[in-house]
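Allow me, if you will, to draw on your knowledge of protein folds for a short while. I have a record of one protein: its chain in single-letter code and its fold written as discrete structure tokens. I should value your view on which stretches of the chain appear to form regular backbone elements. Thank you for your consideration; the sequence and its tokens are set out here:
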Amino acid sequence: MNKKHSFWLIIILASFLQNLPGQQSDAPVRIIDEIKAHKTGMAVWWTGHNGWLIKYNDTLIGTDLALESDERAVIAPVTAAELAPELDISFITHEHGDHFERETSRMLARDGHCLFVMPSNCKEIAQTEAGIPEDRIQVARPRMPFTINDIKIEPIRAIHGNPKFAVFYDANLEDCGYLITLGGKRLLQMGDTVLLEDHQYLKSVDVLFFSPTEHNTHIDPSVILINELNPQYIFPQHRETFRVTPENRYWTSAYPYEVKMRLSKETQKNYHILKMGQKIEIN
């Protein structure tokens, strides 16, 4: 092999190794210092899957935090131990382990002060499997709004899907999404659900967290939803977090780029595919 061919072989090999999953270059940034430093206005951070941290001034809330799962393909950009002293409310949409991750919730309960908002079907699990005290659990029921301090919470119906765009055989009508009003902004975390009229009836959604997976709103229903709600900020989730297999691809793989391509140029300006650990300010 001559020197020219050897040079290009080395370049190709180096590029291949750099992009292997799980290499150090793939590790997300550590975000706890950035979270602590944020004191004014609203910002969101993506921690992977449906896990979001939302901070408005000194109030920090999180949704479906699965930070300690050993099934993750990429480590979380913040640990439950780091987050526990800072978090005020942890929202849980349903009992599946990629959303209600027991170890994360156990650590948040043990080491922190946060309140846990969850569907009624998660309450017993929270107490027996995650050690969450009853006085730190706020049960949410679809279509029954309530407030915590200055935060208005509107639990939204969520109907869990499954492969081949079917509704899950064991779908639980107690599962929730959440429309959260914080700092004058209305943020919709849909949870795991197919498209429902409940979503289309919503008005003035500023921030949308949605899941363009086969078992949720996939591509066309996601486009319908976005065009109906016309949010200022659109964040695809349920992606690029857990190890993908042929059996679980329907929930570990999403189609955020396919959705974006079907949106108008104007709407695409509001569409953000965040990297894990990335922060964006909500204005």
The first strand starts at residue 42 and ends at 48. Residues 10-25 have pLDDT under 50 and may be disordered.
